[in-house]
Amino acid sequence: xTRPPATPLAVSVRDATEAxxxxxxxxxxxxxxxxxxxxxxxxxxxxEMTRRLAATRERGMPYLVAEEKGAVLGYCYxxxxxxxxxxxxxxEDSIYVAPxxxxxxxxxxxxxxxxxxxxxxxxxxxxxxIGDSANxxxxxxxxxxxxxxxxxxxxxxxxxxxxxxxxxxxxVLSGDDRPLPDGATAPPLPAHEDSAPLLPTHEDQRx
Length: 207
Ligand SMILES: CC(C)(COP(=O)(O)OP(=O)(O)OC[C@H]1O[C@@H](n2cnc3c(N)ncnc32)[C@H](O)[C@@H]1OP(=O)(O)O)[C@@H](O)C(=O)NCCC(=O)NCCS
Description:
About 30% of the residues lie in helices and about 30% in strands. The protein is of the alpha+beta class. Strand 6 (about 150-160) and strand 7 form a beta hairpin. Helix 1 (about 20-35) packs across helix 2 (about 45-60).
């Protein structure tokens, strides 16, 4: 028997607070303990997740939740792609949707909002480091929002007794005309000829 298509859920997106961290930790625990989407093997505590929220805020980067009727159904945040200073205008995204509401549009709403926020802050590029080349949900979500697959690192993780791939996906943020996050100036990005067309941001659509 085929299942009827699930109805999209109308969630609202807002900045995460400390009060959300127990629900966020519960969503993340599911994926840490049952999937190779995350390469962590022990679920972090609520206190550790709260510390990570504070670190994201201190960097001035967005940490967002999707909420419906007061319940957190998903979250995402941006972090530095790598710590060395020349990488400072490139971010990495992380996104998790509660397992009982996947494929109902929440991931797209959250990641679109994160792309929008990072673009407005002046970041130039976003990278997804996707655990497991069998992770069709994350690969499909990123592809649907203009990310291009740049490569697969074969078997770089060992989890649940098997070697796990990492898929690297990449998207240019349409921010060339905006000031960089720290107000510095930079030349336009080099052309990414094969990149998927850039999606308009929420801000562009309001114009
Ligand atoms: C990846 C994840 C965040 C996607 O969130 P979601 O709410 O299920 O995604 P959406 O319903 O918004 O889907 C948006 C689009 O992504 C693609 N997509 C989502 N799930 C997919 C799947 N299982 N297979 C193929 N494509 C998929 C589709 O193009 C989909 O659009 P459509 O439903 O109109 O066809 C969610 O599956 C998740 O939390 N997975 C586990 C954690 C994880 O892998 N996180 C990413 C770490 S980098």
